[in-house]
Amino acid sequence: MRLDLILRVGAKLVLPFILLFALYVQFHGDYGPGGGFQAGVISAGMVILYAIIFGVHAAKRIAPPIMVEMMVPLGVAIFTGTGVASLLMGNNFLDYTGFAHDYLHAHEWGILIVEIGVLVTVCGTMVAMFYAFVQRGRS
Amino acid sequence: MNALSWGAVEPQLPILLVVIPLLGALLTTFLRNSFMAWLVATVVAFTLPFISIHLLVSVLETGQPIVYKIGNWEAPFGIVYRVDQLSGYVLSVIAIIGAVIMPFARRSVAAEIEERARSWYYTMYLLCLAGLLGIVITGDAFNAFVFLEISSLATYVLIALGKNRRALLAAYQYLIMGTIGATLYVIGVGLLYVVTGTLNFDDLASRLSAAIIDPGQRNAVVTALGFIVVGLSLKLALFPMHMWLPNAYAYAPSFATAFLAGTATKAAIYLLVRVVFSVFGVGMTLENLPIGEVVIVLSIAAMFLASISAVFETNAKRMLAYSSVAQIGYITLGIAIANQAGMTGSLAHIANHAIMKTALFLALGAVFYRVGSVLYSDISGIGRKMPLTMAAFAVAGLGLMGTPGTAGFISKWYLAVAAIDDGMYSVVFLIVASSLISVVYIGRITEVVWFREPSKAAAKAKEAPLSMLIPLWLLVGATIYLGFDTRATVGTASEAAKMLLEGVQ
After folding, report:
1. What pTM value is reported for the model?
2. Which tens digits make up the pLDDT trace of B148-205?
3. Is A87 in Cβ contact with B3 (below 8 Å)?
4. Which of B8, B22, B71 minimises the CB distance to A90?
5. Who's near B472: CB < 8 A, 6+ residues apart?
6. Are B12 and A94 in contact (CB < 8 Å)?
């Protein structure tokens, strides 16, 4: 049991950087390859690595199943909410022009919010699928 | 400030048709309460027909399509939603069916779905509705694929939750076939994108005419057409690609069957018509290639072979499912004949069949609610215990046969006229002959439910509750009404047919 000391310490060292990289991919998506989908997968990868090293029960403490389950619709709600917000500002659906005074700034903001929605849903879906697989035959 | 005034809301109606069910689906996931979920789904489902009918009426008044630019991006670059006579009509059919069955849903879903899955079930229903409406309203070939997947994935869940364990297998079978169909469609769209560099239906149509003449690109275009037609034929269950349908309809929960029978295949038929007529132009597809002849032969095969399967079936839901395959044959027959009367008949039959088949499945759903089975041996004599339900079933069944005075007669009449117009007299005979087979299978179940002694299960049954009878009789009333006043179906369908056939000549 104690033989995996290197794994445990190594994982603890790596985990924050995985999350940091996920956020880098998320926010760099405007300028280069990346975006919400990739960032969502990477951040879900962090949870999955944690679960593999420390056990599923420990992982469920940092990412409770109910939270993961709610992340899936929440991300879609952020995405749709962006569109509805633009509707309420009197523009077409997903027309971000109203979000800031400057046209380009407004579109950058709009895409950023939408991508956060994508991140939340993708991360939630990946972790939920992982939980579903590791639980099979246990309950 | 005044974003909620009618003047500001009206131009946004096309997107609201998809966004409202999507928001409703989100709301039901957060509520996690089966009654609240049903309430949300009902409110959402009842707003949609008003929107779609409003859109259809304004298109018919002006004669111009309504175009909605998502994100305010111009047409070939961004995705547009486009409501014209055809899409407005199909949208209205789907939205009306989706609304009418909601009162039925509450008790039926409560009886057939376990408690913790119920609110998710309404989520899936609303997602499926959003997907089907999205397929019809979008003016973008790839966006249509995305909506096709949204509706299909939701459909697999709707089917898989059936009480019978075979529902899982049926859903799996449908998943495989549906995925193959969607893949073939997207391969075809991909080829078109390579050739033309665009995905917008209108833009594709204008660029394809140049691509067809170019001998280097012609083969790619023809291949794309083949992929798209076969892929969508799988989705709309054209014979012999219908193998997924009977089991999926038979083992799905009653509510899902009633909804899908009226709407899911209709959206795929719409997409086929849209791509074949508006994008490729009938001149290319139905004259230079034998697609028209192939579809006519397959349609006639569906009308006969599926009807004969229905005659020998002993599960009432499977019987109606086979009948659906046969009725889809009538719809594709008129589309393949491709003249004014044929298109009118086919498009009218989209609405007529949706109404009649949903009514029939609702009646069976009510029987299932009381008896717990739809096998002939279990429902024999049920007519004496549930006279109102089975009377509605009989009337809708008369419509399915094409009896004069019902909606079914109108569409078959136009199909026969279309065949005469094209000089295909044998087809007229075949339409009548296949209708006679439907007399046999509807006659057989009528004999079972009315003239036999009640079975053990049927003897204990009571009349269906009012919440089930009202939607059922509304649809049956529509079956008869549309047999006399055909302005809503044939009137709109002939406008749409004119628009489609003008576009290609």
Report:
1. 0.93
2. 999 999 999 999 988 888 889 999 999 999 999 999 999 999 999 998 888 998 888 8
3. yes
4. B8
5. B104, B359, B362, B363, B366, B389, B392, B464
6. no
